[in-house]
Amino acid sequence: ATMPPLLSAIATAGRHGVLVKSAVAMERLGEVDTVALDKTGTLTEGTPEVTGVRPLPGSGLDADALLALAAAAEHPSEHPVARAVVTAARARGLPIVPAEEFTAMPGRGVAAVVGGRRVTVGRSEDPAAAAAAAAAAADATRVPTEVRPPARPADGRDSTPTGATTVLVSRDATPVGTLTLTDRLRPDAPAAAAALAGLTDAGPVLLTGDNAGAAARAAAATGITDVRADLLPEDKVNAVRDLQRHGHKVLFVGDGVNDAPALAAAHSGIALGGVGSDLALETADAVLVRDDLTAVPAVVRLSRTARRLVL
Ligand code: ADP
Ligand code: MG
User: Fold this and answer.
1) Do 9 and 64 belong together in one domain?
2) What pLDDT, on the 0 to 100 scale, is given for residue 198?
């Protein structure tokens, strides 16, 4: 007996390095007409490195003290930024003191009490929100009325290399420094984006929580023209829902715990296995188990062929 087309497509997808969870999931993958991609950990490798440590004047911190402070707050987090900060601190032999009252703010950053002082590490675009969220979680009387972002470094953020992002470190709601992180584009990202553009009416859409500059550079390097940056996890969900309200069936491709809501809202979802969070893996229709993003368009094509054979 010959295998039903959708099952044999699942077997072929497996050889491409994509684990499709069921025949129904296989079918959904071929129904999509729009693809939305996350940036960090999806278009990029998701293992950034700390390439800049800048204490702010007046903070009383040197680079090592700033990095150690950030690492203490980030230690409990599994976010790629957090792993990079902890790795950099360890590489310099810095002590990482245990933090208390750790809180993760998805898509924003982290907050924790380190040595009795409240430390936040997060988006530099939004220091007031990050500090206010951290303070609200603990001591409402400490909510700052105004928190100014740090002055731009003299070299300017636009001169940072492709894939760079900057996060702000604050102590007791006062900015004390910035960390710059550099991620590498996946080598197969441009080919995957081009193949996806060929399979859908419009090209892929980039949805990211990172800043507009980092998003634009990743998009330019992969030939993606529809870019939406500075999105919180719920903004990613709304972007997916909005596309679907306009009659599209969206495939969302992402890796992080922050991507799970968008994966759930989309018609179909693929999670990246290597760096992916457990929640993303659970929510997706399929998991990319090999480091090859071109398997995404390949599996959409496989599903379309199988569906034609079923109908
Ligand atoms: P993406 O959509 O690109 O995967 P995320 O939604 O995970 O990005 O994060 C968006 C932004 O929020 C990051 O670029 C970073 O500035 C900030 N951020 C998120 N988590 C952390 C963290 N643990 N430490 C510092 N910054 C963080
Ligand atoms: Mg991500």
Assistant:
1) no
2) 93
* Residue 104 belongs to domain spanning: 49-182
What are the structure tokens assigned to 154, written together?
A: 């003299």
Domain match, 150 and 75 both: yes
Task: Report residues whose beta carbon is within 6 angstroms of any ligand 1 atom.
Answer: 38-41, 74, 77, 79, 81-82, 107-110, 121-123, 165, 167, 208-210, 256, 258
The ligand with the least distance to the CA atom of 234 is: 1
Q: Which of 153, 182, 211 is the last residue of a domain?
A: 182
Last residue of a domain, one of 148, 182, 216: 182
Which token pair is 186?
């996946």
State pLDDT tens for residues 55-65.
Answer: 998 999 999 99
Q: Are 124 and 149 in contact (CB under 8 A)?
A: yes
| Residue nearest ligand 1's atom 26 by CA | 122
pLDDT tens figures, 217-249: 999 999 999 999 999 989 999 999 999 999 999
Token digits for 90?
Answer: 């360890």
